[in-house]
Structure formats: C-alpha cells, structure tokens
# Entry
Amino acid sequence: MNIKDHINCNHLLCSDINSNGFLVPSKDIEPEKIKILMISEVPPVNREDYFYFSDESDYMKTTIQAFKDSGITIDSINDLIDLGVYVTTAVKCPKLQYRISAKTIKKCSEILEQEINYFSNVQVYLLMGDVAIKAMNYIWKRKTGKKIIPNGSTYKIRNSEYYYEGKKVIPSYLQTGKNYLIEKTKRKMISEDIKKAFDFVNNKG
# Structure
C-alpha cells in the first residue's frame, strides 16, 4: 500500500506550519512487515530534502548515518524498509518558526494516528525528538487517558523502560538535519536508541 493514498488532512488551518507543504510517505510498503516505527518531527521546507524523495536527500543522509553509527549499514530508504523500519514525521507540514505549538501537534496527532493504525505488527515506537514524543502522547492519552512518556529532558528519561500494549517505546533525539549540526553526544545517544529498538525486535522474534 501507499500511505499517501490513505491519509489526508481536512483542516490545514494551523497558523505555525505551512499547509502548502503537506507531505506524507509516498512509497509502496507492505505494512505487515514493519516492526519499527521511526517518527521524526516535520517535513523539510524543500520537498527534495524529504526521506522518500531521494537517498541523497538531507533527511535520508542523516538517517542513514544514524543507522551506521549504531552498527547497521544501510544506503537507501529501501534498505530501511527491508529491515522492517518505517520512517515518518509527527507533523505533516513544514514549520514556519523554530517551535510548533502544542495545539498544532495535538491536531496533527490525529493524522499520525490514522497513519500508524495501518501498521499492525509494530513492536517498537522510536520517537525522534520532542514533537514526536508529544504527538504520540496525545494519541495514547486519547486512547487510555494517560501519557506513556513522562515530562522531562530526553537525556533524563531515555534510559527508563516504556511500553504501550506490549510495544516498546523509546524516546530519543531528532536525527534529521545536517550531520555537523547534530551534537556528538546526541548522535551517540541516537545510535544507542536505534540499537535498542533492533535488540528488542530481534529478542522477540
């Protein structure tokens, strides 16, 4: 299936994102083969920098490097999918300023919820950055009345164990952007979190 044929946004009225840049994954995927959902922040301002546009896109290059840092060699989005990883963003439109309001993240989480519902065999949610953490917490709170990930700095909460319906939830740092702009300590923690995700899947399988 191709996700872009199944989800859409009917409001597109959020004031702090560019609704003209609405972007979702546009690749044929077999949802039942996906074991890890890697949820990032927002699409790039330029579409050609998006994960699914090109393996040389900015988003894909830093994601490839993050996996290589963890000891997993990939060179393309196809390699990622073959490993059972689906990467998407929590918010589907580029942001207009540095921060995104809680109101926008909450509204966009409804679209994210539509998307992740297609992946019935997921074992790990890998949440890359605060926006992804907040969006998923909104989803879980609607379903259960409570958040899964507590408030707090990522470096303080990332080593605790979190689960939702038997699925492992890993809060991490944003892996997109220029590699030289991602702090070395954060790159190290991202690589550790990716490795944790695969360890969990492999031990369950």
Q: What stands out?
A: The first strand starts at residue 36 and ends at 40. The domain at 3-204 is CATH 3.40.470.10 (Uracil-DNA Glycosylase, subunit E).
